[in-house]
Automatic annotation (TrEMBL), chain A:
Lineage: Bacteria, Bacillati, Bacillota, Clostridia, Lachnospirales
Keywords annotated in UniProt: Signal
Location of the region described as Disordered in the Swiss-Prot/TrEMBL record: 24-45
InterPro entries documented for this protein: Bact_solute-bd_prot1 (IPR050490), SBP (IPR006059)
Protein name per Swiss-Prot or TrEMBL: Extracellular solute-binding protein
UniProt xrefs under Gene3D superfamilies: Periplasmic binding protein-like II
Organism: Blautia parvula
From TrEMBL, chain B:
Subcellular compartments: Cell membrane
Short name of any one Pfam family annotated for the protein: BPD_transp_1
Entry superkingdom: Bacteria
Name this protein carries in UniProt: Sugar ABC transporter permease
UniProt keyword list: Cell membrane, Membrane, Transmembrane, Transmembrane helix, Transport
Species of the source: Blautia parvula
Key word Lipid biosynthesis present: no
């Protein structure tokens, strides 16, 4: 009997100590929180702390701007949340916005995610904000429209845009016997130049790089598939009938081009490079500097990587590299085509400090910060006053003038509902061709069946 | 009589009391999420878009999708190849071989070999993945080694991606099987082996008739655990190849991740998770049956 009593007592003690553990665990947590707030110097309420989520490679830059903001607004604190770069960024931000516990007060949102995230109820409408913001008139209507939801409500404030271009190494082109400045008039001329480059390049040299891997998903979808497809005259989404379009004839033009580059003429990159994570870092840090790459379809922002104080500083970069407009399939239509993207600032619906978020937004989307950002990133400016600014126009490490000339040929991603799932499919189909596991015809058939499967047969028109 | 009943009652209470913390923890951290997984797998919940806000029940659509997916066959094949070669043949056989070779060796050898093998097990997954990525890289260690013998470099991770992740997983996981087998082999008394030897049994006979039958229950446990952990293996493969090139190393768990977090179809991803669970349960039942059937003989 005695033993059992002791056993019971012990068990009871265990439970109590467990509960005790729970309680004890909570207390220090609270205390740490307090300590943290005190440490950051804010003695009053939480409303003085503004949480801003930005990409990992922009953290130092934004810290600088945040320090300025703090100086101008004594008592306010900006806490920067670092988000990993690449496609995981979108996943992480959407997950953070789902809960009040984790939601930032201000985020950088890729333009193509706005419709989808607005539909999900993650974003705060900014119509009211724009009405009361004296700077609202500094944005072109077309640029503002790109940051609206399907309901026509403004959800983002744009801060950068870009165009896709054909970058080429001037020296290697001349060596290969292609006249510089190079401006191809159709896709065949790109292939021809690639073949000539292949002859002069040595071991490990990549004549022409086209993104074609799931490891660079949005890059492959936008810079390869949609860039080329926009140059065939085909459309992906019909905004009138609200249906997705399968246009096999034009799809085949794209798929044959990818197949020519990778499998027929073999002027593409080895698969080990294509599938490498963060392949753009490899190019701007090494391949483009050391004559190991001939041509590439990528954004106008490239020289930003080589700017003063950046990781891959290379002040002479533009002596070697130049841009050309990307031609349409056979030079018909407008003659050229480019895919344009852009980044915006947005305030999550679950933000705890929306007022603070708006205050910081006014500062960071203002002229000074946007100018600094354009200079830092190499992206194109979206504010009229920045576009006209002398410092912006005369910057050495950028192709803003050339890229600006491409804007009239710009196409945008159909970022309606379903896009964020379909874009993965666009990438997978291009990848299967580059890897040699599907012929262009197989690929077009897969495109059709996958599109029907993903958005439903009733939402697809087949041409 | 009354006393016994009281005692019984008290015993039940006591049992419940002692069990309650673990049941509570399991409920909150395991059974709860599991029920939610089942629930969400019948919806079209997504990470973004309108169905993130207002999900709908879609019945068995997600499960039908799995079987309609053109990639399913390749993914299943990849999963099985990865499971059989890295989990069952690799980790289990190598683990057993190491354990039996170390039997009766002196302490220093046992310690040295044991530590070397366990080092793989305690290395965090991502670090192991980076190690093997650089080992198999175009300008990596392996190509340098074969270069000494005059062979030209091979893009291992792209020419033989599955072999690379299989080797990495064997290196990483063999220690567990080895330790389990070591413990159970140590339980086999030397007298029995000695007796068998006197009766004229050879090495193979001792292995098949004495050793293996005696460690059968350990084998069943390790088989089940290794199978389940290999089916769920994600980090190592993902960090090494990301499931590529194309879908050459996409196993079910990577497939699940891609659908849930890259294509944002959470509901579909959950359905795949349940599908993986079903395969795991099925395989575990098969092992247990096999072991029992042997018992009958």
């Amino acid at each position: 009997m005695f033993k059992k009593k002791i056993a019971g007592l012990l068990a009871a003690m265990m439970c109590v100590s467990l509960i005790g553990c729970g309680g004890g665990g909570d207390k220090p947590a609270d205390e740490t929180k307090k300590a943290e707030t005190e440490e950051t110097g804010s003695t009053s309420a939480d409303s003085d702390v503004i949480k801003m989520a930005v990409g990992a490679d922009r953290v130092d830059f934004y810290r600088g701007l945040a320090d300025e903001f703090e100086k101008q607004n004594p008592g306010k604190k900006v806490e920067i949340i670092e988000i990993v770069n690449g496609s995981d960024m979108y996943t992480k931000i959407t997950m953070m916005m789902q809960s009040k516990e984790t939601s930032p007060d201000l985020i950088t949102e890729d333009g193509f995610m706005i419709m989808s995230d607005a539909e999900a109820g993650y974003l705060e409408p900014l119509d009211e904000f724009m009405k009361n913001w004296e700077d609202a008139g500094q944005f072109e209507q077309a640029i503002l429209d790109g940051a609206k939801g399907a309901d026509g409500v403004q959800y983002g404030v744009p801060f950068s845009t870009d165009t896709q271009c054909l970058w080429y190494d001037k020296k290697l082109m001349e060596e290969a016997g292609v006249s510089v400045p190079f401006q191809p008039k159709n896709w065949d001329e790109i292939i021809e130049a690639g073949k000539k480059l292949k002859e002069v390049g040595g071991d490990g040299f990549i004549p022409f790089f086209l993104y074609a891997s799931k490891t660079s998903p949005e890059e492959t979808s936008m810079r390869t598939f949609q860039e080329l497809y926009s140059g065939t005259g085909g459309t992906l989404y019909d905004f009138d009938t609200k249906k997705w379009v399968v246009d096999k004839e034009n799809l085949l033009k794209v798929y044959n081009f990818v197949n020519d580059v990778y499998n027929v003429e073999k002027i593409g990159a080895p698969l080990s490079i294509v599938s490498q994570q963060k392949v753009e870092d490899l190019f701007v840090s090494d391949y483009m500097k050391n004559g190991k790459l001939g041509m590439i379809f990528t954004g106008s922002w490239v020289p930003g990587n080589w700017g003063e104080g950046r990781t891959y500083e290379w002040p002479e970069g533009l002596d070697t590299w130049a841009v050309a407009k990307i031609p349409t399939y056979d030079g018909s239509g407008d003659g050229f085509s480019t895919m344009s993207g852009g980044w915006t600032w947005a305030i999550p619906k679950n933000a705890n400090n929306k007022a603070g978020g708006e205050e910081l937004l006014k500062f960071i989307a203002g002229k000074d910060c946007q100018l600094k950002y354009a200079m830092f990133s190499g992206d194109l400016a979206v504010r009229k006053d920045v576009m006209e600014d002398e410092t912006y126009l005369s910057q050495k490490m950028s192709v803003v003038k050339e890229a600006g000339e491409m804007l009239p040929y710009a196409h945008f991603r159909p970022s309606v509902e379903g896009y964020s799932t379909l874009t993965t499919m666009f990438t997978e189909v291009v990848e299967s061709i580059a890897m040699g596991s599907a012929s262009p015809d197989d690929a077009a058939a897969t495109f059709e069946s996958e599109m029907k499967r993903i958005v439903g047969e009733e939402n697809v028109t087949v041409k | 009589m009354v006393g016994t009943r009281n005692q019984q009652k008290r015993k039940i209470w006591k049992t419940a009391l002692f069990f309650s913390p673990s049941i509570l923890l399991l409920g909150v951290f395991f059974i709860g999420p599991m029920i939610m997984t089942v629930f969400f797998s019948f919806t079209d919940i997504s990470l973004t878009g309108s169905s993130a806000q207002a999900m709908k029940f879609v019945g068995f659509r997600n499960f039908i999708e799995i079987f309609k997916d053109p990639k399913l066959l390749t993914v299943l094949k990849n999963t099985m190849v990865f499971l059989v070669f890295s989990g069952i043949i690799g980790q289990q056989c190598l683990g057993f071989l190491l354990a039996s070779l170390m039997r009766g060796k002196n302490r220093l050898v046992r310690k040295f070999v044991g530590f070397t093998v366990v080092a793989g097990w305690i290395t965090p997954e991502v670090i192991a993945a980076f190690m093997f990525s650089s080992f198999f890289a175009d300008a990596g260690t392996l190509n340098k080694i074969i270069g000494i013998f005059g062979a030209s470099p091979v893009s291992w991770l792209f020419t033989f991606p599955m072999a690379c992740v299989v080797i990495a997983n064997i290196w990483k996981g063999s220690a567990y099987s080895m330790m389990m087998f070591q413990a159970s082999l140590d339980n086999i008394s030397d007298d029995i082996v000695e007796a068998a030897r006197i009766d004229g049994a050879g090495g193979l006979q001792i292995l098949l008739r004495i050793t293996l039958p005696m460690i059968k229950s350990t084998m069943a446990t390790t088989f089940v655990i290794v199978t389940l952990s290999t089916l769920g293996a994600f980090g190592l493969v993902f960090a090494m190849t990301g499931g590529g090139p194309a879908i050459m190393t996409t196993t079910l768990s990577i497939f699940m991740y891609q659908k849930a977090f890259i294509a944002y179809q959470i509901g579909y991803g959950m359905a795949i998770a349940l599908f993986i669970l079903a395969i795991g349960i099925l395989l575990s039942l098969v092992y247990i049956r096999l072991i029992r059937a042997n018992d009958g003989n």
